[in-house]
Amino acid sequence: MTRLGGRLAALGLALSLAAFPATAAQAVPAGVQAVQEPAEGKRIVRLGAIQAIDSMNPFLAVRVISTSVHRWMYAYLTTPDSKTLQPSPDLAESWQASGDKLTWTFKIRDTKWSDGTPVTAQDAAWTLNKIMTDDGAKTANGPAVENFESVTAPDDRTLVIKTKQPQASMLELPIPIVPKHVWEKVPDIGTYEAERYPAVGNGPYIAVEHKKNAYVKLMANPAYWRGAPKIDELHVIFYENPEAANVGLKKGDIDWIGRLAGPQFQALAGDPNIVQWNTQGRRASYLQLNPGAATADGEEIGDGHPALKDVKVRQAIHYAIDKQALVDQVQNGLAVPANGSIVPPMYKDFFWEAAGDTRVTFDPARANKILDDAGYRKGADGIRTMPDGDRKLEMRFSIHTEDPIEDKLAQFLTGWLKDIGIQLTTRKLDSNKFTEETGSTALYDIAISGWSVNPDPEEVFATHLCSRRPTAAGEGGGTESFYCNEDYEKLYRQQLAELDRPKRIALMKQMQEKLYTDAPIIAVYYPNNLEAYRKDRITSITPIPEDKGILYGGSGYWPVYSLQAPAGPAPSDDDGAGPFTTAVVATAAGVVVVFVLGLILTARLRRKGDDDRE
Amino acid sequence: MNETAARRRGALARFWRDYRAQRTGLYGAAILAVFVLLALVTPLVTDPSGLDVTKATGPKMAPPSAEFPLGTDESGRSILLMILWGSRVSLLIGFLAALLSMVIGTVTGITAGHFRGWSSAVLMRITDWFLVLPSLVLALVLAAILGGGTSTIILAIGVTSWAATARLIRAQTLAVEARPYVERSRVLGAGHWHVMTRHVLPNVAPLVLANTTLTVASAIVTESTLAFLGADAGQASWGSMLRGSYDWGAVTSGAWWYVLPPGLCIVAVVLAFTFCGRALEAVLNPRLRGVA
Amino acid sequence: MTAPIEIEPAAGPAAGPQEGRGARRGALGYALTKLGGALLSIGMVVVATFFLFRLIPGDPAIAYTRDVPLTPDQLALLRRQMGLDRPLPEQFLDFVARALRGDLGTSYEYRRPVAELIGERLGPTLLLVGTGLVIAVSLGLWQGTRAAWNHGGRLDRFSTGISLTLWSVPTFWLGLLLLMVFAAGVGPIPGIFPTRGMEDVDAPDGPMYLLHVAHHLVLPCITLVAVVYAQYLVVMRSSLLDEIGQDYVTTARAKGLRDAQVRRRHAVPNALLPTVTLVFLHIGLVVQGAVTTETVYSWPGLGLLFYEAIKGPDFAVMQGTFMVLCVAVIIMNTLADVLYHVLDPRVRSA
To answer: Transmembrane stretches, by residue range (chain A) (predicted)?
Structure first.
């Protein structure tokens, strides 16, 4: 090597060593065994998530990952029963509603926060009052307390909630109760990050470390009132790239991934160490058909196709959809065709299934007949026109950008609707614009949407109320359909006040039937809940509900509470090479790889150099 | 006139002789010719209905076989068919974006070089500004604001990539306008328009050509990157195929036939354009002749 | 993306001897002119950002609430707080005043000041981009020197070819392939690199922490370097070729100096200067390489923040990141420009 070349190479190497300072100083210090691997004897489970925490402040957090972690850190008043999903005692040992159904009295459990302070009803009262009175605290759970008149704690064990209207979903409050003695010192809840560790909580796990955009580390809470979990630590590790997360699971970097997309789930097939967990999901996917949008005051808005105001057209479209084909082709079989409405079959009690004559099956001939009978004539181009005018049945189908599944669904739907004389064009909108056009300005004909349903499905029913339609000023109220039907409203009001569970369920089933036959929305399928975990690292986990339920992202903390794992370092794929050696070798290899090319070239240059000299 | 034609023919012959001497340029041109030819004959020899997911016949994510030489994607469509049709979209976006960039760059460059004073200063300031901005970031923002679609992508790439061309063309314009015959024609009363279109443009045109060739290369890479980051053209291009392979888990399920071909096609075409551009530059830029 | 092939640096110092006007004014005057230009550019970024992001269809207040239904009163209040009820010029002045104070708005998604989010992500990006740049530049300059000195030879064709091929590869695709091969492991190749991020839970303390991070840095860094080093190679190669053609090199050779000496003492130092300057002029390319690299490897930097904002979409974060990236690139450019002027005797005396 010539001197200059050598120097440049040395310079490059020195620079790269400066960049990898650790490589240069490789004296092997004691205790390096701790690198990367759990210390001997600890039982650790590492959960991979394709999402990072948005906030550790439970008053602000809205992402599923954050609300899940908060579920594990803080007790709620009630928690869904692990078998039936019905409300069962958690922080509240028992409860009682008054005769007028407006006053609820909860008996608060005598337990301790993780810093040793006793948990009292004052904590619960303070938390709920904070959300009711401080706009900054409303971000995550504001709507849940909208109907509250007052919340008081007459003594340390009693919590009294008075509501303006009867509220049957009172036992499903999605609100983590935080320790008053810690949180009342926070000057502004709306901007507080809550990054103080160990966090003070009373759930099965305590957050002890959060590295933003990287991971959250939780430890078992030894003082948990049900008894400490059977593992020592739970790590939640964030991935941006779902493919990388899958690689991480196969390799053993993580032990468990919840909420997998279908393709990633299928890619894990055949790995002997991995359990693929495929169960019914919480979500219903449906089409929104603009039924003639109007504001909450009844003023028409938007530019929906007039034909969709006709319930017959909406029903005809329902007959033209092959839900089974969508499940097979779009969801790769990982979903259930929707023979019901907005409540997925996972919630056995609330799920309503269409049967007999009501049931709509894939029948393009029947769809065509309905449209023919209703006077929509087909033109020469095969596209129908309105009975009373020239307007063709040409409609837009609004979907989200960046969603390969919706994209694929659109391609199928376009084909089927063409067969019944409706021309569909796909519009891709970003999620802000999508929400605006399908929720407040009504600039859509048909759109794709969906909703993840809680064990108490009240909220998803509320999204089809007249009052949820936008205000006269065009501001959205959260409607999912612009639906407004007097019978439906009546049923909704009845179920609100109905505290008898079977009767309330019967009312909710009638509402689902109404939505099914009126078709302002058409449920197409219920996507399965897809997860995977390593069986060498998780020896036992109980889903919720216990019979074929969900592991991650369900309601309640049962699955993570039930986790069992072997002690000690994870079995490693590479034989013998310790983690430290691996890291050193890998890093060194990285540096070498960058320069190998150059070295080869230099060697060649030396050979060629003399010949080339001019 | 005949004399001019003969001179032009002579120049062309000289150009070809010089270009032929650039071996990589020849390789590049050959690769390009193959791809363009394939893109052109694709509609004649294949049936686009195979791109429709409802009409796809193959098994899902199947490895290469006699029926599907490059295997199938998540819906059972032939990867080969998608590559062929995707080449049309990728090349179209590359060409049109480069064309847009070339037009903006040339007009700005000639104007800024021809006129002096504040208008030129303003133009150059804007050019410098576009030159330093991270263009991919700007293109992403534009695509996010304008919404998806082929024309958006072309616009986003074209609007963010013209500045280097404008710089180059301006320098060349200054040089051309300093030549005595341009000076003479101006004294004889030629207007701005005449000078710019009759004297400057023909002289800078070869350089514009070389530069545009290079722009096509970067436009194709940019298109695929935009598609990966979520701003796709709405049609099957090589970039959106790569995005599809990522979305549908081809990497972890080991479906190399889905991951590799679109990427390799991008590399081949981009490299070919780069080789051609460098060869053109070497031939046309006397200062560099014999250097590249 | 800027083609790496601009043999003549398109912008900045080498752009043309015709433009010697600024040069005659002396170093200070030149620096002031450049500084003024940079300030103007930054001003243009601010103006463009404001109006670009006002073009976005939809109501920012509704976007900010992210589907949480609000009463009209709450919405009106939010509009007032966000200043949306005021006339556009007033909003603009407010925007500028805030930007000057370092207030870039509040993230829709994180409910935290955008400036703070950017601050958190700056470190990892600087580490990745800095390391990548150092390696890419050393590799590019070194290989470029080799290629130029042997130009036309097999080595030249080989190294230039390799670098241009890598330059033609879409960054994210290369990243995914490397992830697949070296993080997951294929066949006999073991997956020895981590699959994500900059550090794991229970990262060690002290010096071992550096090793831990370096281990995570390897794949992202190789991805970034592979794609960008070609431009440095090509620029160094052509600058050096220019120098070789100069009379003084011929003279030096004629004097009987050895080839290596000529190269080391005369040609390379002269060619190095414009090339190193170009490193900074093309820094925008490295920044955008970082967006894709960080996304593929979940590297918690600015590029990933920008990508997340696009996916959200979180326009507040998008706007802030966009502005910060642009301003950073402009500052780097100006610095390079001024430094070049100060250092290069030829430009100074022109």
So the answer is: 580-603
